[in-house]
Amino acid sequence: MNPEGKKLLNIIILGFGFMFMFTAFQTCGNIEQTVLKSFNSTEFHGSGYTSMAIIYGVFSASNLIAPSVVTLIGPQLSMFFSGLLYSSYIAMFIYPYTWSFYTASVLVGVGAAVLWTAQGNVLTINSTDNTMGRNSGIFWALLQFSLFFGNLYIYCAWHGHVHITDKDRQTVFISLTVISLVGCFLFFLIRRPDPESSPSEATESLLQAESTDSSTAISPHSGLCSQALDAFVQACKIFVTKEMLLLSVSIGYTGLELTFYSGVYGTCVGAMTGFGKDAKSLIGISGIFIGIGEILGGGVFGMLNKSNRFGRNPVVLLGLITHFVAFYLIFLNIASDAPLAPEEGTDLQAYITPSVAVAMLCSFLLGLGDSCFNTQLLSIVGVMFRDNSAPAFAVFKFIQSIMAALAFFYSNYLLLHWQLLILVLSGFLGSMTFFMAEWMAESNRRESDYDSI
Prior knowledge:
Blueprint: H1 3-38, H2 48-62, H3 66-92, H4 98-125, H5 132-158, H6 166-186, H7 199-202, H8 214-218, H9 224-239, H10 242-271, H11 282-303, H12 306-310, H13 313-333, H14 356-384, H15 389-410, H16 416-451
Helix pairs in contact: 1-3, 1-4, 1-5, 1-6, 1-10, 2-4, 2-15, 3-4, 3-6, 3-9, 4-15, 5-11, 5-14, 9-15, 10-11, 10-14, 10-15, 10-16, 11-14, 13-14, 13-16
């Protein structure tokens, strides 16, 4: 296999590994608030929203050390051990206790920071400036198949169920744990790419276990601990660059809307008694439509590589318009107290008669808009910070996760219309700052091309 084919195969394996892991984890996040409301135990006092706030809060803080961990043990082992923490969190729902619930939330937050930093490192190492958009799209599309398969399973398992029994919960979470473990072991199929394209790519090794020879480990100045410290310092420097400060607003917006589509909106759909007795099973259908939107967006703007031809700004603008349409329809269709409703649901209506078709259309639009933003952010961060990809993606996830944690926290208290207002304002500001960052990147590229003549 030629070097380019080997790199593409690595991206595909990476995508499949994340697809299996997040088939389990995203499905877990989508249903956990509903599951915990149905959990019949006077000794359990956990909240799904609070758990996700802890996860993303710890995720955010752990991004400060994630580049050092990836440097020390390499991205492959980093993804594997992080994946085991994800699997442990999912398995905890088989027999949940309050202490284990929140402890697992902390641990998966640490694992998430390391996992996504390593993912960004692998994506950059196996891409060039010309293939970054394509590879980001391939990875994103494969990752988002997780929403389709996981939620299809939830729909089939819970169809017609008004109350989620202990047996229903245990069957689902045993299955999800096994699926997550399959994804963990797929990471071992990733192979070291041939460092042939550019010096900057050659400086970053994929499987760093091969680079820990004695001559490197002995020197206190050039050893792994020094490399880990350098990675942390680089992350701090990248955080305050003009490019990252501009991108941080749009990255922060993706954290807010990640919370909304992955946790809040599914809960809202399941709480609407106006959707009929099968409202709980509609959580799975909603997730499927989100996944279809994500997959379509990743395919169109990534695998077909349209973003390289027309630039990233039109794709982000499409994502903004798509989200604004979704938010408006959700405002009309979903009751304002749906995020906070008890297990029995809410009998309140919004401004129109509750429509399942409109709810599923909004799910699709949420997924499509999210893929527009994320594929372009992955692409621009990978290109702008190619020489320091692991620290750059750690900063990316630091910003995204701290905003997601904030959103999960306020989701415990804010009615739906206030949450939608926050999303509209942050989405508009994030798009404007992305446009500025893209124009800056294009200007730098033209200057570089001119200097090379």
